[in-house]
Amino acid sequence: MLNFIKLKGWFSDDPGIQAMIADGFDVFKRRVAYRIFTEHKNEFYLNFCPKCKKIARTPQAKQCRFCFFDWH
Predict the structure, then answer these.
(1) Within-domain flag for 17
(2) Distance CA 44, CA 8 (A)
(3) 57 in a domain, yes or no?
(4) What is the mean pLDDT of the chain?
(5) Which of 29, 38, 49, 71 has its CA 20 to 30 A from that of 22?
(6) Widest pairwise Cα distance in the chain
(7) pLDDT at 1 exceeding the cut of 80
(8) Does residue 25 sit in the same domain as residue 46?
(9) What pLDDT band is residue 53 in, cutting at 50, 70 and 90?
(10) CA distances to 12, 31, 32 from 44, in Å
(11) Exposed, middle or buried: residue 69 (CB in 10 Å: 0-12, 13-18, 19+)?
(12) Quick one: pLDDT band at residue 49, thresholds 50, 70, 90?
C-alpha cells in the first residue's frame, strides 16, 4: 500500500513535510489555518461575535451560532 501511495504522489519523504505532520493531523490543520490567517488577514473579512468573539457563519451574519447573541 505504501508503494501505491508513493507512486500516486500522496506521500513525501521530504524532511520538511515530515516535520510538519509529526505532531498529528489536528495540529497540522491548526498550523496551516494560523499561517493562512496571518499571511492573508488583509485579504478577507472575518465577522466575529461581539459577545463571545467566535467567528460568525458568514461575513453578513448578525447572530452568533455559538452563544446566539443577536447584533441586528
Answers:
(1) yes
(2) 34
(3) yes
(4) 91
(5) 38
(6) 56
(7) no
(8) no
(9) very high
(10) 31, 18, 16
(11) middle
(12) very high
Task: Give the total residue count for the chain.
Answer: 72
Determine the structural domain holding residue 7 and report its residue range: 2-31
> How many domains is the chain built from?
2
Q: What amino acid occupies position 5?
A: I
DSSP of 10-46: -----HHHHHHHTT-HHHHHHHHHHHHHHHHTTSS--
23 & 46 share domain: no
**Looking at the structure, do residues 46 and 70 belong to the same domain, yes or no?**
yes
Q: Give the Cα separation of 48 and 55 in Å (integer).
A: 4
pLDDT class for 7, splitting at 50, 70, 90?
A: confident
